[in-house]
Each structure stands twice: as C-alpha cells, then as structure tokens.
Amino acid sequence: MKSNQIKGFSVNPHLKNNRLTVVTLSSSTINGFCKKVAKQSVQSIEYKPFLRFHVANCLNQETNNTLGDFLLNTIKDRQTGAVLLQCESLDSETLNNIDFIDFNILLSTAISHLIGVPNLDSMSGKFYARFSVKNEDNSDSYLRQAHRRMELHTDGTYVKEHTDWVIMQKMLEIDVEGGESLLLHVDDWQELDKFYSDDQAKAEIQWGSPPSKNVGYKTYHPVFIKEEKQGEPRMSFIDQFAEPLNTDQGLYLYEMGESLEAETNTFGVELCEGSMLIINNYCWLHGRDKFIARKNLHRELLRQRGAFSENARFEQKSV
Ligand SMILES: [Fe+2]
C-alpha cells in the first residue's frame, strides 16, 4: 500500500532501523474513534469477543479502512514486520474524555483485531495482560524485574497456540530512566547462518514455564520453526524457558544466548505513554534494557499476543 493511499495516519521509517515503521494516528482519527467507542466499557469488551471486532472497525473506518490493511501487510512482510504505533495527541479533548487507561485498552484491542485474534493470556485469564514494573520485585521470571536486562527472545515458546504477533503497549510511566525495548530482526543477527546450519537447529527442544504463567504443560519444537514460503528462517526461542535434555542441546542454546546478547545490530526503542510496538513474533526478537534504579519507578504495560486470523482457530500448532 502506497503512502498516498492511506488516510488518517502517517507512516515513516524509524530513525534507528528502517525495518521498523512508525505509524502516527492523526488527532482527528483518534477523536473520531473515541466518539464511536465512547459507550463501550472495558468490561464489555472483556466479556464479549465480537465487540472487540466492532471496536476495531470503529478505528478502521476513521482511516477509510486503510489502517487494517496497512498494519497487516507490514507485519506479514518479513522485510519490515514491525510497527511503532503512536498518537498525534492524547489530551482529554481528543480522547473525548475517555479515561486514559481505558483508551489504551480500547486502542490496543482495536489494533489486535485488525491484525488477527489475540490468544487467551494465561497470566491474566483475559485476551490481554496488564502488568507493572516497580523498583522492587520478587516474581519468578525477569518480566517485572527492573534492574536487569531481559534477554532477546520471542513470545509463546511454551504455549500451544500460534503466536504470530506481539503487541507491547506503554500506558503509564513515572520516574523511569532507561528500560528501552530492545529489538533484533532475525536477518540482522550476524551469526544466524552459524546457528541455522548447526545440526541442533531443527532438533526438538522441550519448553516449559514457571508457575506464574499458569501453563501446566510442556511444548516441543525446534528453535528454528517451519520456514517462510521462500525458505527464510523463523525463530521461537527464549532462554529462560528452554529445557534442554542433553549436553548438545544445552551447549547449543547456551552459545545461542551468548551470541544474541553480544549482537551489535540490536537496537533500543523508546516508547512514550500511549504508544505500542507491534511485531512479527517469528522474525523479530525482543527484550528490554535494564532501568536506572529510582525509588518511585513505576511503569504500566499492556501486552497482547495472538495469531493471524487464518491461524487463530484453537488447535495444537504443528511447527
Ligand atoms: Fe516477551
């Protein structure tokens, strides 16, 4: 889709990496969307799945039905596959006095339903999960731990559903320094060929998760899952939840983690409140840089993970 065929939003390459497309919704698009969804509550969209598609349609209509196609084409295109979506303005007049947190939930719901269907998030029991990052934490994974870097990974390694895309949205931020989102496209990983050509690349690995994830089973798939039509590699990898069962697997995964963390093509993206990253989960790895410790550090995030419509029917994935 050419930029002269879009309406109600602008498109620019990100300054740090032109694979990442910056989409800015215009104030009139946001205002029109907010007026259309003013009577929808967050609870109602949690209870009724079809309402989420209505909310998505309300946003798409404000762009002459161009936003959905643009996002889907961009996320499915391996060369790009990632969008930073932001809003031109977020004052209460533009938001038609909708509560800011509610607006964020409605907006990311609209976006997720323009590109597919979100999976049930077992951590929250909903189609989205909200979580806080604070100065102190005693959880059982690195997700909420501010003082350390969260290593590059893809999502959904340990669930049965397809996880074609991930949405990471920032709703609130207080007293934060650092903690940028980290991104690396699989094709920009300089040691990709070394690991992709290894005997272990297609070996089935066992994946599990800690109790907080509420997933009571294991999954089995290689790090490099089924390729795209043209044979380009796609990855499903996270260091914390791989459960190697022999030395060859363990050393392969260890060296992969070391290589990814040393990769100089990884870049950081700052998200402002009300913006979100939308990434193709199988060709982009993501992580988070550590934060500078501050007493009142507080960040409210929302995530959705899901499948393109054609992969959304619930059944065990074959990878
Ligand atoms: Fe993640």
Question: Key terms for this structure?
Answer:
alpha+beta; Double-stranded beta-helix; 4-stranded antiparallel sheet; globular; 319 residues
Polypeptide structure, described:
The protein is an alpha+beta fold. The chain has one domain (3-136, 144-186, 263-309): Double-stranded beta-helix (4-Layer Sandwich). Helix content is 24%, strand content 25%. It is built from 7 helices and 17 strands. The mean pLDDT is 92. The structure holds fe (ii) ion.
Morphology: globular
Can you tell me the number of structural domains? 1
Runs with pLDDT <50, length 5+? Answer: none
CATH architecture: 4-Layer Sandwich
Quaternary: single chain
Bound molecules: fe (ii) ion
Number of helices: 7
Beta-strand fraction estimate: 25-35%
CATH superfamily: Clavaminate synthase-like
Number of strands: 17
Global structural class:
alpha+beta
CATH class designation: Alpha Beta
Order of helices and strands: EEHHHHEHEEEEEHEEEEEHEEEE
- What is the terminal separation in angstroms? 30 Å
Most strands sheet: 8 strands, mixed
